[in-house]
Specification:
mainly alpha, two-stranded antiparallel ribbon
Length: 438
């Protein structure tokens, strides 16, 4: 008798009900020939989602997410220019209201960028050297390098004439250990002059208080020609523009309508791109998200807090986790509130989906976003039991035995578990790559 493939599948659904993976939970126990044939077809048709769909969604989310980040960074640039003026109309006596608005714009711009961090380490544009004026530098180091030595920034501003605080010169001294008058700063990876955290430092100032963010005062930006305040305004204005420029370079590489984009080639090389996706996910979760960002668990050093000047670090962790969730589920909530819905790594996870999903939620939701305002003070937002409700940097003073620190350790365990599960998912799907070692 001739059996139509679709009929077999339909009959198998009737016999099996809601069996695992829409198939047979334990096929070796069945002697039913119809069941066996039906399972053969189901095993090869487990999901209507293909690897091509997953690769397409990854690229689409990357472009959309970076587009949102360019928009939010542009809003930050505009807020900074309202605070201190443009290069042609310098404001020598700025207002506290506009300074606070610039801080808020920085805070508001971070979520969209933080969600893009999941695209790192996948041989994408964020890992490339896209800035021609600093050709030896990966573009990510010009956008979000951390930690930075704020005293190096101060030294550069103090020892550079206002006219020489140009884009090219500020980029040139980034990570330099041979800058005239600033030779005492010998840690190249901390001599950061550009990016999110350089802007953060200029707006908030040094953070020496466990209960509040940095203590930058308005008078630091008040003063006319020849003052340090003028140079500080010029410096801040320039690096705000550079942030937008550098994010735009990355966004355009994901834009399929732009020349020299990677989106088209990325989508056309499915197996190679999946390898890159899994490599990036594993490397970011294990080496960056679960290791360097959580150094303070063992160091008890406030300087190891990611956004230490503003005290916005809990949001950093929250939205890094959201970035992983986006790629895993194949969804992304755009800045305009609409939802992109596609295919994600979840469609390849099989039996590991439950563990990954549980740990994803834990790594995000254990950070209660109850800090707000220009100084990121604790607000009245209700925090669920078992979440980090205090200021992130207060964990240092509370010590490693505190209940809050215990929650943070559980987050690190969850992140490392996610990294291990992602590597297993890749292996189960015939995808091999070199796993991160840290």
């Amino acid at each position: 008798m001739y059996w139509n493939k679709k009929i077999i599948i339909i009959l198998t659904f009737v016999i099996c009900g809601n069996c695992e993976n829409m198939g047979i939970k334990d096929e070796k126990k069945s002697n039913n020939p119809l069941l066996a044939v039906g399972y053969f077809f189901l095993a090869n048709n487990k999901s209507s989602v293909s690897k091509q769909d997953i690769v397409n969604s990854y690229a689409d989310i990357a472009f959309t997410n970076y587009s949102d980040s360019v928009t939010s960074a542009s809003n930050l640039k505009s807020a900074i220019e309202s605070f201190i003026g443009t290069s042609g109309v310098d404001i020598t006596n700025p207002s506290q209201v506009n300074m606070d608005a610039a801080k808020k714009a920085w805070i508001d711009a971070r979520p969209s960028y933080l969600q893009t961090e999941i695209f790192r380490f996948a041989e994408g544009p964020i890992d490339e050297k896209l800035e021609q004026r600093k050709p030896e530098a990966g573009i990510e180091t010009l956008i979000n390098a951390w930690p930075l030595d704020e005293l190096f920034v101060d030294c550069i501003i103090a020892n550079t004439t206002n006219s020489n605080l140009t884009e090219a010169n500020i980029l040139n001294v980034n990570t330099s250990i041979s800058t005239s008058n600033c030779l005492s700063f010998t840690s190249a990876d901390k001599n950061i002059t550009v990016g999110w955290h350089a802007i953060e430092y200029l707006l908030w100032g040094q953070d020496t208080d466990l209960a509040a963010g940095g203590s930058r005062v308005l008078s630091d930006f008040v003063g006319g020609n020849g003052t340090i305040a003028e140079k500080r305004r010029t410096y801040l204005r320039v690096i705000a523009k550079l942030l937008v420029d550098h994010l735009t370079l990355v966004r355009d590489k994901w834009d399929p309508s732009k020349p020299e984009n990677i989106a088209i080639s990325f989508k056309s090389n499915v197996n190679a791109s999946l390898t890159k996706i899994f490599t990036g996910l594993a490397a970011f979760t294990k080496s960056e998200w679960g290791a360097q960002r959580l150094n303070m668990i063992t160091s008890n050093d406030q300087e190891d807090e990611h956004s230490c000047f503003s005290d916005n670090t809990k949001a950093d962790f929250y939205y890094d986790a959201q970035g992983f969730i986006n790629v895993y589920n194949g969804t992304y909530k755009k800045s305009n509130g609409t939802i992109y819905s596609g295919a994600g790594i979840k469609n390849l996870a099989g039996g590991l989906d439950s563990s990954i999903t549980t740990n994803m939620s834990l790594t995000r939701d254990n950070f209660c976003l109850n800090v707000s305002g220009a100084n990121m003070a604790l607000d009245s937002t209700s925090c669920a039991s078992g979440t980090i409700s205090g200021k992130f940097d207060q964990l240092v003073s509370n010590g490693t035995a505190s209940s809050q620190m215990s929650i943070l350790k559980s987050v690190q365990t969850a992140v490392i578990t996610i990294a291990a599960n992602i590597q297993t998912v890749a292996k189960n799907n015939g995808i091999s790559f070199s796993a991160p070692t840290e």
